[in-house]
């Protein structure tokens, strides 16, 4: 007896509708991470002999190792590409955390075309468009959306939805997320892709180093800022290196030969520092004694009534010679008061090594309202001596 074709078509349509409904329900439950509890089935209690035989079979089966399953129970580290056992949560080489599933399996609704499947992987051109979107939005100058801290120089990752995060923050977010699907912390996009964010590193680092936003700064300025910061960091690292090395060798670590060379260089540096300190102390003592001798000679000259040319003007000959040498090296061609040629009139040398016309200095002192005469150039107290017109020697 043949069935009615119309009835057969109606039965097939109903079956398809039920299958699609079940597929949609399964897809929604998976996307919302809803799990039904497993059914509780009652089993008859086996006899003691049967249970003992079953336990023996189970132990024998568990002792057999399937080589194919052992090969599949590994995961590849994103940082160093090392294969690790599936039971290990962190990489044994670089201590990176185990990544979550990359490409989730398609549900029945996605296979039947009822729901859109995950988008294909982005190519290089699409990644460039995503980076341009992130730079145009200005994510580089704002803090990380997870930890709310500036990006600084820490590693950063860019998602396929054009959002930027700290690599450590996103790794922690993925590790503690209560779902197997990847979800962006900002836009909630599922099954995103990520890559290290290199183009924005320079602007982010520069803005973090200078402490303000560098929206209007040119690339050349940012490059100079990065170079300055790198030089400062290098100087600080070189400054800390000897203390860190001393602490390392103090614990008994390292090569004995290198450790002995390090301590020998350290002792040599200490000895050199002591020698320099003793030399500086001896020089200071010699200078102090020379000053005492000079003061004693002046005192004896005053009490002995000497009025020779060396002390007549209150300055010793060596000091006047030094002042004349400074004036000659400066080679001043004009008088600072009248602004005429220096060789036109008689010249006077001040103790501060400035040279003026004798007549100009007399006029300046006559119109001076203060009791103490001050140099018209440096405003310092001075004593004067006449010079020859060629400024080669003193006239008095």
Topology of this structure?
Layout: H1 5-31, H2 48-63, H3 67-72, E1 74-76, E2 83-85, H4 108-111, H5 124-137, E3 156-159, E4 164-166, H6 167-175, E5 194-196, H7 201-210, H8 219-250, H9 256-303, H10 309-312, H11 317-330, E6 347-350, E7 355-357, H12 358-366, E8 384-387
Antiparallel strand pairs: 1-2, 3-4, 3-5, 6-7, 6-8
Helix pairs in contact: 7-8
Report on the structure:
The protein is mainly α. Among the domains are: 124-211, Herpes Virus-1, CATH 3.30.40.10; 218-252; 254-306; 314-387, 2-Layer Sandwich (Herpes Virus-1), CATH 3.30.40. The chain has twelve helices and eight strands. The strands form three sheets. The chain has a three-stranded antiparallel sheet. A three-stranded antiparallel sheet has the order 7-6-8. A two-stranded antiparallel ribbon has the order 1-2. Helix 7 (201-210) crosses helix 8 (219-250). The model is unreliable at 57-71, 203-212 and 306-313 (pLDDT under 50).
């Amino acid at each position: 007896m043949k069935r009615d074709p119309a009835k057969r078509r109606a039965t097939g349509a109903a079956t398809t509708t039920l299958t699609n409904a079940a597929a949609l329900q399964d897809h929604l439950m998976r996307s919302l991470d809803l799990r039904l509890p497993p059914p509780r089935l009652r089993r008859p209690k086996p006899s003691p002999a049967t249970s003992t035989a079953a336990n023996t079979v189970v132990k024998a089966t568990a002792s057999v190792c399937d080589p194919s399953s052992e090969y599949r129970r590994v995961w590849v580290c994103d940082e160093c590409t090392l294969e690790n056992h599936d039971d290990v949560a962190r990489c044994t080489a670089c201590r990176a955390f185990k990544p979550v599933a990359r490409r989730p399996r398609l549900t029945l609704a996605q296979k039947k075309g009822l729901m859109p499947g995950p988008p294909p992987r982005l190519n290089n051109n699409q990644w460039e468009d995503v980076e341009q979107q992130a730079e145009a939005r200005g994510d580089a100058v704002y803090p990380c959306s997870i930890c709310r801290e500036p990006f600084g120089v820490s590693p950063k990752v860019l998602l396929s939805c054009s959002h930027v995060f700290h690599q450590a923050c996103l790794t922690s977010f993925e590790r503690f997320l209560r779902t197997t699907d990847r979800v962006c912390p900002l836009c909630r996009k599922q099954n995103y892709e990520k890559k290290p964010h290199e183009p924005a590193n320079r602007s982010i680092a520069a803005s973090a180093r200078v402490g303000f936003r560098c929206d209007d700064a040119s690339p050349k300025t940012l490059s100079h800022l990065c170079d300055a910061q790198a030089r400062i960091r290098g100087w600080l690292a070189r400054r800390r290196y000897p203390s860190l090395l001393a602490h390392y060798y103090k614990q008994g670590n390292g090569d004995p030969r290198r450790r002995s060379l390090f301590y020998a260089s350290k002792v040599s540096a200490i000895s050199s520092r002591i020698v320099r300190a003793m030399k500086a102390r001896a020089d200071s003592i010699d200078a102090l004694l020379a000053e005492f001798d000079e003061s004693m000679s002046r005192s004896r000259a005053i009490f002995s009534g000497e009025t020779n040319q060396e002390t007549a003007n209150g300055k010793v000959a060596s000091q006047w010679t030094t002042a004349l040498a400074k004036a000659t090296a400066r080679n001043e061609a004009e008088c600072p008061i009248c602004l005429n040629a220096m060789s036109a009139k008689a010249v006077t040398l001040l103790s501060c090594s400035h040279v003026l016309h004798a007549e100009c200095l007399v006029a300046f002192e006559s119109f001076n309202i203060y009791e103490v005469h001050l140099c018209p150039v440096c405003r310092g107290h001075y004593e004067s001596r006449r010079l020859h017109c060629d400024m080669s020697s003193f006239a008095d």
